[in-house]
User: Which sequence fits this backbone?
């Protein structure tokens, strides 16, 4: 019996010591560089609709939008009215979908541009990024709208 107790005590001591040893650290994985195609958290100002440069009667009210990943909502301004809603994005395949949301209903001189801007958002199903230029597209058709990164944001 003493012999069994001695083996058991030795075994328990080995288990205890093994559990107290620090675990080897695994090498940390390097953080990949921020994806240059990440369009979230940035202010994108409209420059073209359907291949045509926008012509605003009130250039200080340039349409723009921003994507907030925290609550998966977009917000922006169409030139006359605030716009917003939810969106879905798959950045790895550059797919995006804007869902109909809210908008104020103020009339202004650039209402036609605002309607085209809103329609481009709702029609887009994919995007492309080239430097500081974002293009919203529908399938493989010509770009619906082009935007530039607003660095003042």
Assistant:
């Amino acid at each position: 019996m003493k012999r069994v107790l001695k083996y058991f005590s030795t075994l328990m001591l080995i288990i205890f010591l093994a559990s107290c040893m620090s675990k080897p650290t695994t090498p940390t994985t390097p953080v990949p560089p921020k994806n240059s195609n990440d369009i979230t958290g940035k202010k994108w100002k409209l420059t073209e609709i359907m291949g045509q440069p926008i012509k605003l009667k009130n250039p200080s009210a340039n349409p723009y939008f921003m994507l907030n990943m925290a609550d998966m909502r977009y917000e922006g301004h169409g030139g006359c009215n605030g716009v917003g809603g939810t969106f879905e994005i798959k950045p790895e395949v550059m797919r995006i979908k804007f869902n109909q949301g809210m908008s104020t209903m103020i009339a202004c001189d650039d209402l036609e541009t605002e309607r085209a801007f809103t329609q481009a958002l709702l029609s887009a199903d994919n995007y492309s990024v080239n430097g500081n230029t974002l293009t919203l597209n529908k399938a493989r058709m010509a770009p619906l709208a082009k935007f530039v990164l607003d660095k003042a944001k």
Observations:
- The radius of gyration is 28 Å.
- DSSP finds two helices and ten strands in the chain.
- Helices lie at 2-20, 111-123.
- Residues 52 and 145 are 9 Å apart (CA to CA).
